[in-house]
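Appendix C reproduces, verbatim, an entry submitted by the partner laboratory led by Prof. M.T., so that reviewers can inspect both the input and the predicted structure.
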Amino acid sequence: MSETKLPPADETVAQRPTGGTWVATGKKAVVLFLLAVPFLAYVLCLQRLAVNIPFEDDYDAVLRFMLEFLRAGSWGEKLTLLFSQHNEHRLVFDRLIFLASYYLFGELNFVYFIAIGNLGWLLTVVLLIRYSRKRYGLSLAAILPIPYLLLAFTHFENMFFAMASLSNYWFFLFSLTFIICLVEERPAACCLLFPIALFTSGGGVVLYPLGSLYFAARKSWKSAAWFGSLSTLWVACYFIGYHRPSWHPKPFEAFASPGRMLHFMFDFLGNIWQVPNLPVSVEPLSFITGIALTLVATYILYAKRFDPFFWLIFAYIAISVFTSSLARSGFGIMYALESRYSIYPLFTTACCVVGAASLSLRNPSCKWLTMSAIVLSILFWGVMSVEKSQLQDLWQQRQNRVVGMNAFTTGVIGGLFYSNQYQAAQILLSSQRAHIYNYKYIAQ
């Protein structure tokens, strides 16, 4: 009679992996792999295409600022420069990064600034994923669309623009953190985050009414008093000595053309179609997308009428779109389609996906909505990011910067990415003499 072999003492039948367990483990591995793909592609794209060359406002906001800061004779002058206005913004956060880099490494490197700036966006994506899972109990599969939407390359101008990446991406991170702290009623954190967001981008002023009204609506009078008084003080500091740039349209003139302003708002909110050789016209497509996102967001607010997170998020987006249209619509409708602004509609789309996924938890028969969102977001990411013409276009933009700077090293100006070539040349020469930035060696 054969002897029956018993399992080891530390293993029970229940602990042995079953076929169902292996299938579940395999599915989780696939989802984790899919979750990692857009992050890896994004980082690889940055590593390959970022280059140590200033672009547009970098000449003023980075190089000219550093020249003036080092020449300033007193700490009072230096502090004034730190808080001085650049266009309509006070870029204190950016400037602290520039100064830290200079004093740590002895000169400026725009690749470092681009990397730090994009880190802010990657952290924003991670924060939205983690908070969505924590607050709504969403599965890994349900949150897959978030990185595929937010890490699409449609906002490529921010990606490879040192000043803009630091300002715009970190502002979004601070704003999302602020809204989460509001929902969790952490007034001390909100009081701290508000000035940080405000002095990262002027858009931070939209958090002022959000915080004040939310605490008041919750009847948290002590929190409302603290936040209201401190944030009012910071807003007053921001606007002391403020002047509207002379080349910017007057904001309230936008009301003279309400149709144009409304058109601008929907184009701005639907500006996600940044890809070369798109077979259809981008402007009407963006306008339709903006209307569609507005309707979806409105439905989510109606369906989740007692959820403060979505009310705050969509109010934040709505106020941002309104104020941007107020200040920018005078430049013309096509200004709404700038690449750097696409982070707003992408973020709106990602939040709509989170809202739809949380609603579908109540109705298992709506699983097809989650699957559709996953498939469509991956397709969108593929076309907007790793499609051949998109990658070729991004590579060509990088090469144009390299060619222009290398031509400048031989004494030829005209290829620098700045509105005034002579002024850009003077800034570069002064930065070289002051050992702030070395333009003479640019990697091919």
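The chain has a mean pLDDT of 87. Additional entries are available on request from the coordinating office.
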